[in-house]
Design a protein that fits this description.
Its cofactor is thiamine diphosphate; Mg(2+); [4Fe-4S] cluster. InterPro entries: 2-oxoacid:Fd_oxidoreductase, OFOB, PFO_beta_C, THDP-binding, TPP_enzyme_TPP-bd. Residues 48-195 form the Thiamine pyrophosphate enzyme TPP-binding domain. Pfam families: PFO_beta_C (PF12367), TPP_enzyme_C (PF02775). The chain has helices at 21-34, 70-80, 92-98, 100-109, 154-160, 174-186, 208-214, 229-238, 256-259, 277-282; strands spanning 42-46, 61-64, 85-91, 114-119, 165-170, 191-196, 216-217, 243-249. It is α/β, with parallel strands linked by helices. The chain has a single domain, classed as Thiamin diphosphate (ThDP)-binding fold, Pyr/PP domains (Rossmann fold, 3-Layer(aba) Sandwich). An 8-stranded mixed sheet has the order 2-1-3-4-6-5-8-7, with helices on both faces. Helix 1 (21-34) packs across helix 6 and helix 3 packs across helix 4. The chain binds iron/sulfur cluster and magnesium ion. Iron/sulfur cluster binds next to loops.
Length: 283
């Protein structure tokens, strides 16, 4: 049985020292080992951005895709080979700006994959511009007088889009983050996990200290019922989207691949579908 070290490779991440993305990488590796996967049973598909490099740093199948397009690739992969555990990963710019259309539709489609967003509330790779997650008044090179737009609440969007699994965590809380990714991998449907993953180089406002001071952990609300959608929306709004933990889970809804007809349950890969070059050209 694979252990944590089997999910490590010899590629040294080129993230800045202290970047929150290191913890997300470690949490995915730990979660994969904890749920009993072998490296060849895991695929990590990522978008563009600093966080998009994550697919290269995990010993598993990996694909560093196109900006905002990790989800279409990940969904296609899952439909073609349903025996794979598929994780899509990227940043807040990738998933909530250029990729937002895919995010909303993947959520409501409920394909059995896990989507992890490394939310640093800025564009890091391009050296610090305002992102859809930046707060009003946030000053960057692209908004030198402060952003006049409101920050998007991905948790509210996910709930409104019909998500069956919504969680949020923080890079500093590796134990919680690992446990939530494990739960996400086990969830029979689309699991959305937003992670506060500080950009230590360009975001001098939303720092580790800022998150520690402002996060509201659900552990503080022991009677919280994660199956109650109204309670979930209330908690998200009460905490201004700074709640962490398992916020909502609906175990009753079937996943997309369980409902789709016309394919054998094991997916395309096991159907041994072969196509000739001539047939391909006619498509
Ligand atoms: Fe991480 Fe920011 Fe450095 Fe990118 S620029 S690697 S997000 S700390
Ligand atoms: Mg970002």
């Amino acid at each position: 049985m694979a252990t944590l070290k089997d999910f490590r490779n010899n590629i040294k991440p080129n993230w800045c020292p202290g970047c929150g993305d290191f913890s997300v990488q470690a949490a995915i590796q730990r979660a994969a080992a904890n749920v009993g996967l072998e490296p060849e049973q895991l695929a990590v598909v990522s978008g563009i951005g600093c966080s998009g490099r994550i697919s290269g740093y995990i010993n598993a199948y990996g694909l560093h895709g196109v900006h905002g397009r990790s989800l279409p690739i990940a969904q296609g992969l899952k439909m073609a080979n349903r025996e794979l555990t598929v994780v899509a990963a990227g940043g807040d710019g990738d998933g909530f700006a250029i990729g937002m259309g895919h995010t909303v539709h993947a959520i409501r489609r409920n394909i059995n994959i896990t989507y992890i967003v490394m939310d640093n509330q800025i564009y890091g790779l391009t050296k610090g511009q305002t992102s859809p997650r930046s707060a009003e008044g946030f000053k960057t090179k692209s908004t030198p007088s402060g952003s006049i737009e409101s920050a998007l609440s991905p948790l509210e969007v996910a709930l409104a889009a019909g998500a069956t699994f919504i969680a949020q965590s923080f890079s500093s809380n590796l134990k919680q983050l690992t446990a939530l990714i494990e739960e996400g991998m086990k969830h029979e449907g689309f699991s959305f996990i937003n992670v506060f993953s500080p950009c230590v180089t360009f975001n001098k406002v939303n720092t580790y200290e800022w998150f520690k001071d402002n996060i509201v952990d659900l552990e503080e609300t022991p009677d919280y019922d994660a199956s109650n959608r109204v309670a979930a929306m209330t908690k998200i709004m009460e905490t201004k989207s700074l709640v962490t933990g398992l916020i909502y889970q609906d175990k009753s809804k079937k996943s997309y691949e369980d409902m789709v007809t016309g394919f054998k349950p094991e997916g395309l890969a096991k159907q041994n579908i072969q196509i000739t070059e001539q047939e391909f050209e006619k498509l």
